[in-house]
Amino acid sequence: MSSAPPPTAGQLVRFSAIAVPVAAAGLPLGVYLPAIYARDYGLSLTTIGIIFLLGRLWDAIADPAMGALSDRTRSIHGRRKPWIAAGGIVFGLSSIFLFFPPFGVTPLSLGLVLFFFYLGWTAVQIPFQAWSGEVSGDYHQRTRIATYQTVVTSSALLLTLILPTIADQLRPGDGRLQLTLMGGLVLLTIVPALFLTLTALREPPLPPLPASRPRLGETIRAITGEPLLLRVLASDFAVTLAQNIRAALIVFFVTFYMGRPEWAGGLFLFQFVFGIFAGPIWLKIGRRYGKHRTAVAGELVQVAINLSLLLVTPDSFPLLLALTLAQGLAQGSGNLMLRAIVADVADKHRLDSGEDRTGLYYSVFSLAGKTATAVAVGIALPLVSWLGFDPKGVNSPDALTGLLLVFALGPAIAHAFSAALIARFPLDEAAHAEIRRQLEPGSPGYAFAE
Asked: Is the CB of residue 312 less than 8 Å from the CB of residue 323?
């Protein structure tokens, strides 16, 4: 096996730079933009909801298509870099119209902007994730690479969360100012981030191109016929589902159950501050115990934290702060390990089939997370409403108890399910080392050297 030195810390920080504009655009897209477009630009909530739903459906189609296309791309610059560069241009230009609409906002203009925004975002994100899994074939180095991306992403999300708070201090309720600050962060970082990422590392040698173009049925079988991939996808779906149930309800929980509306945004920010420190902690645990065991441990910690929320009362705000701190330190542990495992599964598939489908596998991994984000809102909000909670009216003690139960038990159950799915995962460090040995140059399954 190649003894090429692992990437330095500086190289990995540069390589992860593209996560800054991507995260800075992604958070407002789901949290702030719909409300601002409704309040400040006059679009109805129904219209915005339909447009964003159609945008997500387009995104769901584009993800696997981009994964398969980047797997088959051959150029002097590699197969991932051209897509990231082109996608970055489309992403940046569409961000101008998304955050700084020059002629107002109409349903048609918003739909067109989101079409190109999601196209550019996918062309950046999916090839970048696949490239991340190819930087090294070493079992633990892949976790290290994913950790740097997690820390950079968390830092970008923290900064993005701070900007609307600053806007509210300057001009309360001014949605256009919030858009200006958040969009400014995206536009200021996209060009330097692209440069840093594209020049940080060299792509590995290109694998052989399959003799025939894969058909749709063959591509679907490559996904559904890999049981280890399906376990990883289901486990990550459960992790993301848990996280987004909590995110969808945290403002309601803090405002109505705790009676502390002044902390509704601050508590979310508090969690992200400690989330920045989570990656290096879980990296060390992963090196010692392996990725799937660490993922299970992280999910069980999350189960304990969320069950402990059942002990929180409106008078025990310090307990909620402590649990939020713990939530931040445990944040993303499962996602981090599972993302690194995808590359290991792609190695196994390449050895078994002779086909390199790393980009395809990361695209369906991304799609699973996006689907879970949508499903979480579709479960959490109707459920608390059915239990009697109404954010516009006076809530009975029973309705507030229902809110607490969904806020605590929903994520706890999903995290427990994630842990059960990934427990006793057979592709551990020893099994992966044997796969990499058989993928040495000259072997039938060889795709690329480290």
From this structure: yes
The pair of structure tokens assigned to 431 is: 């099994």
Q: Which two tokens stand for residue 335?
A: 């996602």
For the chain, how many helices (H) and strands (E)? 18, 0
Same domain as 120, residue 156 = yes
- Vertex 62 angle, CA 23 and 372, to 5°: 60
| Distance separating alpha carbons of residues 48 and 38, to the nearest angstrom | 8
CATH of the domain at 425: 1.20.1250.20
Same domain, 40 and 153: yes
- Together in a domain, 175 and 322: no
Helix ranges, 331-428 (H): 333-353, 358-386, 397-422
Closest CA to 302 of 273, 280, 276, 282: 282
pLDDT, one tens digit per residue, over 213-255 is 666 677 788 888 999 999 999 999 999 999 888 887 887 888 8
Residues present in the chain in total = 450
Coil, helix or strand at residue 104: strand
Amino acid, single-letter form, for residue 345: V
Do 185 and 248 reside in the same domain of the chain? no
Over residues 262-292, the pLDDT tens digits come to: 786 677 777 777 777 788 888 889 888 999 9
* pTM, rounded to two decimals: 0.79
Residue 214: inside a domain, yes or no? Answer: no
For residues 277 and 173, state if they share a domain.
no
Q: 430 — alpha (psi -120 to 50), left (phi > 0) or beta?
A: alpha
Residue 316 lies in a domain: yes
Q: Concatenate the DSSP letters of all residues of 191-243 into one string.
A: HHHHHHHHHHSPPPPPPPPPSSPPPHHHHHHHHHT-HHHHHHHHHHHHHHHHH
Measured in degrees and rounded to the nearest 5, phi and psi for residue 102 equal -75, -25
The residue range of the domain holding 27 is 1-203
Report the C-alpha gap between 360 and 350 in whole angstroms: 12
